[in-house]
Amino acid sequence: MIHLFQPFTQRNVTLRNRIVISPMCQYSSVDGFSSDWHLVHLGSRAVGGAGLVLLEAAAVTPVGRITPDDLGIWQDEHVPGLRRITDFIRTQGGASGIQLAHAGRKASHANTWKGGQTLTPAEGGWTTVGPSAIAFSDDYPTPQALDKAGIEQVVEDFRQGARRAVEAGFEVIELHAAHGYLLHEFMSPLSNERTDAYGGSFENRVRLLLEVVAATRAEMPDDRPLWVRISATDWTEGGWTGDDSVRLARLLQDAGVDLLDCSTAANVPKADIPVGPGYQVQFAEQVRRETGLPTGAVGLITDAQQAEEIVASGQADVVLLGRESLRDPYFPLHAAHELGVDVKWPVQYERAQPKR
Ligand SMILES: Cc1cc2nc3c(=O)[nH]c(=O)nc-3n(C[C@H](O)[C@H](O)[C@H](O)COP(=O)(O)O)c2cc1C
C-alpha cells in the first residue's frame, strides 16, 4: 500500500491524498485582492493532483502585510476573487485552504524582487506592531508594542478573516503562527518581553494564539478542519523549543485544532539551523508521537519516495511541498506514477498520462 495516496479525512473534509501545497506568498496582489496569477498558479497545482492547495499568508489587516503586494482578507470585497479560486480547485478534485496571517514586526517591507528593504511611510510603508518594542534586526523598524485594545483588535481581525475564508469556500483554514510573524513573536521569549497577561510564562505567551484559535473556530462550521503552522523551534538558545511545541499541541488539540503544521525558525535573524533534506520532519514526528495530534511535515521534501516514507513511517499525516511544487506543479501526478499508484489525470491531459 502506498500511504502518500491514501485519502485523509478530518471532520467532513477528505483530501484525495497526503500532498499539500505549502503556503507561498506570491506578492501579486493590489490592495490585497487575488489576481489572475493566483487563479492560474493555484489552479495549476490543483490540476497537478495535490490533495490540498493552501493559499499563501493572507493578511487579516493591512498593517499585517509583509509587503504592499500581499494577499489580503481584511475586507468583504476580497471574497469573490477567492471564491473563484476555491471553486476552480474543487472542480479539479482538490481541496483548498488559506493561511490567515499577521506579519507583526516583520511587516512593511518591499517584496524580494523589489529589493526586500524596509519601507518608510513615504515609500508606502507603515508603523509595525509587535508584542514588545524590539526590532527583528538592525535593518528592521522597532514595532509599537500592542496594548490590550490592540490585542483585542488582532483577535477580531482574525475572526473576521476566518468568517470571510468560510464565505469564500475554503475547506481548511490555517493560522500562521510561525516564521517570526505576530503570533510567533508573542510565543517566543526572544521577541516577547511583556509583563502583562500576554508575556512571561508559557501560558501567557501562547494566550494570543489560543484566543485567535477560539475566535477562528467559532466562525468555522464544525465540519471544517482548522490547522495551525508553528515554528517548532527557534533553533536558538533561550527561544521556543520542540518541547514547547508538544506542550502547545496539547492545548491546541483541546481548542479544536485538527493538525499542527511543523515548520521552524525565522523569529531571529541568526539561528543555527541544520538545513538538509527533511530537516524539520523530526518536529512533526515528535508532536504526533507525544500528543496524537495529526501533523504536517514541511521543509526540503523533494521526492516521491521521501514523501512516502514520512507518511508511511507515521512521522506525519501529510507532507507540505513548497519549492518542489514550484519546480513541478504536477508533482503529485508524477509521484503517483513513480510509486506505481493509479490516479486520475485531468481528462484533458489523459492522452499524455504515462503508461505502466
Ligand atoms: C516563495 C515562497 C513564499 C513563501 N511564503 C510563505 C507563506 O506565505 N507562509 C508560510 O507559512 N510559509 C511560506 N513559505 C515557506 C514555505 O511554505 C515552506 O515552509 C518552505 O519553503 C520550506 O519548504 P520547501 O523546502 O518545500 O520549499 C514560502 C516559501 C517560498 C519559497
Write the layout of secondary structure elements.
Elements: E1 8-10, E2 13-15, E3 19-21, H1 36-47, E4 52-59, E5 71-72, H2 79-91, E6 95-101, E7 129-130, E8 144-145, H3 148-167, E9 172-177, H4 182-187, H5 202-205, H6 207-219, E10 226-231, H7 242-254, E11 259-263, H8 281-291, E12 295-298, H9 304-312, E13 318-321, H10 323-327, H11 331-339
Helix pairs in contact: 1-2, 3-6, 7-8
Bound molecules: flavin mononucleotide.
Cofactor: FMN
Organism: Hymenobacter psychrophilus
InterPro entries: Aldolase_TIM, OxRdtase_FMN_N, YqjM-like
Could you characterize what this model shows?
The protein has helices at residues 36-47, 79-91, 148-167, 182-187, 202-205, 207-219, 242-254, 281-291, 304-312, 323-327, 331-339, and strands at residues 8-10, 13-15, 19-21, 52-59, 71-72, 95-101, 129-130, 144-145, 172-177, 226-231, 259-263, 295-298, 318-321. It is of the alpha/beta class. The chain has a single domain, classed as TIM Barrel, CATH 3.20.20.70. The strands form three sheets. It has an eight-stranded parallel β-barrel with strand order 3-4-6-9-10-11-12-13, surrounded by seven helices. Strand 12 (295-298), helix 9 and strand 13 (318-321) form a beta-alpha-beta unit. Flavin mononucleotide is lined by residues 22-25, 56-57, 99, 176, 178-179, 229, 263, 298-301, 321-324. Residues 4-339 form the NADH:flavin oxidoreductase/NADH oxidase N-terminal domain. It comes from Hymenobacter psychrophilus.
